[in-house]
Amino acid sequence: MRKSYSGKFKAKIAVEVIRGQNTLSEISSKFEVHRVPAIPAYA
């Protein structure tokens, strides 16, 4: 079964990516998500 993430949760991740203060690996660990579905490759 696939996990479903709320828009608010996705927005939090997007803000972290845009800030660019952490690597994608650090962000995915922080939010306990897998990098591929949660964070776009172009980020």
Structural features, described:
By secondary structure, this protein is an all-alpha fold. The chain has one domain. 56% of the residues lie in helices and 0% in strands. The protein is built from three helices and no strands. It has helices at 7-19, 24-30, 35-38. The model has no long low-confidence stretch (mean pLDDT 80).
Characteristics of this structure?
43 residues; 3 helices
Shape: flat
**Helix and strand pattern:** HHH
Q: From the structure provided, what is the oligomeric state, counting identical versus distinct chains?
A: single chain
Number of strands: 0
Rg (CA only): 10 Å
Low-confidence stretches: none
- Count up the domains: 1
Major sheet? none
Query: Which structural class matches the secondary elements?
Result: mainly alpha
First-to-last CA distance: 26 Å
Mean pLDDT: 80
Approximately how much helix is present in the residues? 55-70%
What's the number of helices? Answer: 3
Could you give a short description of this structure?
The chain has 43 residues and is an all-alpha fold.
Write the layout of secondary structure elements.
Blueprint: H1 7-19, H2 24-30, H3 35-38
